[in-house]
Specification:
Helices cover 10% and strands 33% of the residues. The protein is mostly beta strands. It has two domains: 77 residues, SH3 type barrels (Roll); 86 residues, SH3 Domains (SH3 type barrels), CATH 2.30.30.40. A five-stranded antiparallel β-sheet has the order 6-5-4-1-7, with no helix packed on it. The longest helix has 21 residues. The protein is elongated and about 50 Å long.
């Protein structure tokens, strides 16, 4: 009987030790994150580095707050991200906000029209220029509710990058070293009767040339 009790106790100790090893380290910030996932940049100036640490060279700088990125994996306080151009670099985790952003990228017959309600019958509020960056509030079926320059509305899901699992793949050719990229702004043609309004407010997306 005593031998059975000792054997049972040994099995209990082994089991509890194995369970303890399986518990995530709560001191590790990445233990509370999921990978891969979509997120957005928190600031207007974010350095993208060639490795997980400040000792690595800056490859380029993201200069657009809320720009969506696909977070691939962690390394300490650093996160490997991929952007809409398919380029990958390391960004400090404090530069990333765990909410979804949207990069307007109309394709083919899909037009980036901001509407009052989801669906083609929704009243048009503004036409979004390629390169507009917005915040995603909610998505349903083929439409997403977004906010750009304090204006909310719905846009077709295929007109933006930063939400669908298919967006894990790049939609654009790399813009690194090409100079500037049109950034955030609402555009409208100013004609009456068509429901398209907005102000032209462009910001730049600058990139350092590759070494």
């Amino acid at each position: 009987m005593r031998r059975l009790m000792i054997a049972a106790l040994a099995l209990f100790v082994v089991a509890t030790q194995g369970h303890a090893r399986a518990e995530p380290d709560q001191n590790d910030p990445s233990a509370r994150e999921s990978f891969p996932r979509f997120a957005r940049l928190k600031f207007d100036d974010v350095r993208a580095r060639g490795g997980a640490g400040e000792s690595f060279p800056v490859l380029w700088r993201y200069q657009r707050k809320n720009l969506p990125v696909y977070v691939l994996e962690p390394s300490g306080d650093w996160r490997l991200v991929r952007d809409a151009w398919g380029d990958q670099a390391w960004v400090h985790r404090s530069m990333i906000e765990n909410h979804r952003g949207a990069l307007v990228m109309p394709t083919g017959e899909i037009k980036a029209i901001l509407r009052k309600s989801p669906g083609a019958a929704g009243r048009a509020i503004a036409r979004l220029a390629p390169g507009v960056v917005a915040r995603i509030a909610y998505c349903q079926a083929d439409w997403c509710e977004i906010e750009v320059d304090k204006r909310k509305g719905w846009v077709e899901r295929l007109a933006i990058w930063g939400d669908s699992p298919d967006d894990a793949l790049p939609r654009l050719t790399s813009a690194r070293g090409s100079g500037n990229f049109a950034g955030n702004g609402l555009t409208g043609n100013g004609l009456t009767g068509n429901g398209l309004t907005g102000n032209v407010q462009f910001s730049s997306f600058s990139a350092l040339p590759r070494p």
